[in-house]
Specification:
By secondary structure, the chain is mostly beta strands. It has two domains: 115 residues, Immunoglobulin-like; 76 residues, Immunoglobulin-like, CATH 2.60.40. It contains no helices and 15 strands. It has a four-stranded antiparallel β-sheet, with no helix packed on it. A four-stranded antiparallel β-sheet has the order 5-4-7-8, with no helix packed on it. A hairpin with a 2-residue loop joins strand 14 and strand 15. The chain is elongated, with a radius of gyration of 22 Å.
Length: 200
């Protein structure tokens, strides 16, 4: 986890996390951004010095949170909004992640979520396998990478061939195919990925 204290160059902006919950009055411009292999959490403290210490917390279910970074000291400024940025460099892959900011003893920000559909520990992931039909193939490629997908059954017969797909996440449906082991080949510019999966 890396923390960067940015120069205060943006103006305060109130953000509502949902129709039913108003953002903490000390916060503005509170956002989550998916990066390649990382998640950026950025927020701005408005209204002067507001708290002593901050923590960024992460959850996989939106209920149980753990701290992933702490900022010590007085936060905010009496004269202008102060932006902060935290980069989660090891978010759990293929997960919906929930984040919140703890403002010392002054309470929490709203909870915001982001879908992190990248893989960071391997080059490809096919799940679920075995599958009853609907499945997902995730490749470790940049968003928008062109992918051509081919799938063969155990007898070598091509059962699926699709081009013009966009990585990294590809949805496929093999519910019309018979039970057995299948082989796939995903072709991207400069590389081909191969693997197997089981259709129950």
């Amino acid at each position: 986890m890396r923390f960067v204290h940015l120069l205060p160059t943006i103006t305060a902006q109130w953000v509502l996390s949902s129709a039913s919950a108003q953002e903490h009055p000390f916060l503005g411009a509170y956002e989550l951004t998916e990066l390649e292999g990382r998640v950026r959490i950025s927020w701005t403290i408005v209204g002067g010095s507001t708290c002593n210490g901050q923590e960024v917390e992460r959850s996989l279910d939106g209920i149980s949170f753990t701290s992933v970074y702490r900022v010590d000291g007085i936060c905010g400024s009496v004269s202008e909004p102060v932006p902060y940025e935290c980069v989660d460099v090891a978010p759990p892959e293929l997960s919906e992640l929930y984040y919140r900011v703890k403002l010392g003893l002054d309470g929490y920000s709203s909870v915001k979520s982001i879908v992190f559909d990248q893989i960071t520990t391997s080059d490809q992931r096919f799940y679920p396998s075995p599958t009853t039909g609907a499945a997902t193939l995730v490749l470790r490629v940049a968003s928008g990478t062109a992918v051509t997908l081919q799938v063969w059954d155990a007898g070598g017969r091509v059962v699926m061939e699709r081009s013009g797909l966009s990585g990294p996440s590809i949805q496929l449906d093999v519910s019309a195919e018979r039970s057995g082991t299948y082989t796939y080949r995903a072709i991207t510019p400069g590389r081909a990925y191969t693997g197997r999966f089981v259709r129950e």
